[in-house]
Design brief:
This protein is mostly helical and 137 residues long. Helices cover 82% and strands 0% of the residues. The longest helix has 46 residues.
């Protein structure tokens, strides 16, 4: 079997399994993200391993700049619009929270003096401190 035949067979088989994969996803009864968060210490330990660092570095070096550019441009053209559409309601929810937080706090900065460079720096730092405390959900 040639590499192109191998790849075509893999692609055809995987594309034919969409409904089986979806059924598998629907059977999951524990949040994978919660399980990953619970395994934090294991993840940190594994990420600290020299073998992991070496494998990561080797894998990154396998991709040339041109390959990365071509692949990224292709995927952006194929997927960005759909991803944006799918995320709009989440972005709107985030926007509500962010804009409300800013509106509730901007008065603190607007009430500060603004005559000197030091005043400007103080205003900037105050806004920085305010925004660094923003937490979404």
């Amino acid at each position: 079997m040639k590499r192109t035949e191998f790849a075509e067979k893999w692609a055809g088989n995987l594309k034919g399994q969409v409904e089986n994969i979806v059924r598998g996803v629907e059977r999951v009864d524990r949040s994978p993200t919660e399980a990953a968060a619970a395994a934090r210490n294991l993840w940190v330990a594994r990420m600290s391993s020299k073998d992991v660092h070496d494998r990561w570095e080797r894998a990154l070096k396998k991709v040339s700049l041109e390959e990365w550019k071509t692949t990224t441009a292709t995927l952006v053209r194929q997927r960005l619009s759909g991803g944006v559409d799918a995320a709009k309601s989440k972005v709107a929810s985030f926007g509500d929270a962010l804009l409300s937080y800013q509106a509730a706090n901007i008065g603190k900065v607007l009430g500060m003096p603004k005559l000197t460079l030091e005043d400007s720096r103080a205003r900037m730092n105050a806004w920085f401190d305010i925004m660094s405390k923003f937490r979404y959900k």
